[in-house]
Amino acid sequence: MKLLEHMGKEIFREYGIPVPAGMVAEKKEDLERIDIPFPWVMKAQVLVGGRGKAGGIKFASSMEEAKNAFDEIMAMEIKGERVRRVLVEEKLSIEKEYYLSFFLDRSSRNYLMMFSSQGGVDIEAMAENITKVYINPLAGLQGYHLRKIPKEVRDVAKRLYKIFTEKDCELAEINPLVISEGKAIAADSKIIVDNNSLYRHPELPAEDVELTPLEREAREKGIAFIQLDGNIGVIANGAGLTMATLDALNEFNGRGGVFLDLGGTDNPEKVKQAFELMVKAEPSVILLNLFGGITKCDTVARGIIEFMSQHEIKCPVVARIKGMNEEVAREMLKDYVIAVESFQEAAKKAAELGGD
Ligand code: GDP
Ligand code: MN
Prior knowledge:
3 domains, Dna Ligase, domain 1, 7-stranded antiparallel beta sheet, Rossmann fold, 6-stranded mixed beta sheet, binds guanosine-5'-diphosphate, alpha+beta, D-amino Acid Aminotransferase, Chain A, domain 1, binds manganese (II) ion
């Protein structure tokens, strides 16, 4: 379960990690009751990533500006997710922006602490300057682990680790962890709690913030649909193929924005619904990777054509179609998609078209 930023910050506060003074506003009138001196930073509360880039963070230096910013933010839909509320905080003067996180690293069967002195941007974008420290979960965080990161953030790291373990997190991240007036302070929070342990945490918000609205809509329609941080929408059939497609994109520096598994379907209507959902997520390119078996290629093609002949899709669709009735499907789709022969080529093409 992902927590909204303001919920994560409440936990930070409880565990003694400094956070900016802040209050949540759901209606414009709420702003009047906020007694934080200007300037403010106003932040859309959404679960999808890339909020800052999408314009979901605004600054205000008067009540009038704040009200305008509030209206603008509440009218936003970020990657298909409506803004539920706005977190209003004192604007910090930033001296440094660090990145700090604890992560459950399944491949090494360890906890992983990551630190970077170039925070503020996506972790993927910092590839270069990341300090990675593996922590044996049985031994826990030790002094020598902490000595690998700057002194000024060690206390925060200790406390974040406590949150990470006590709340059964998959991820506890502060990005950016800023240095403001010589002090470390968490300007953002990202916490993902392991769903399997939710029963141990009645203290966590009961409110279902786990799914984005599009994910919830997909669940109702019986479509496996997960929103990720990238911008390439992947449609494939079978969870394995869908994941392999995301991995293939990674090879070409493409970043998956949506995981959509058509599953085994022989119903064009379901394919149409899947495309409808995908388009609402506003990917910059759609990559369709189809291996026809139970799901026949021409069935999928029919669904796609039904959708595309009624709606204008603003982004290109790259398609790799193999298996049952592939020739028919390819012929049907030739005016609708960019057809590519191999899996590799498809991933490469989509990564190219979907570059930021
Ligand atoms: P995200 O982009 O959705 O992760 O949102 P963040 O909360 O991480 O904020 C993105 C960026 O906005 C930060 O890296 C800062 O550069 C800037 N920002 C956020 N809060 C403040 C603030 O209080 N003061 C200043 N000067 N910049 C801020
Ligand atoms: Mn951030």
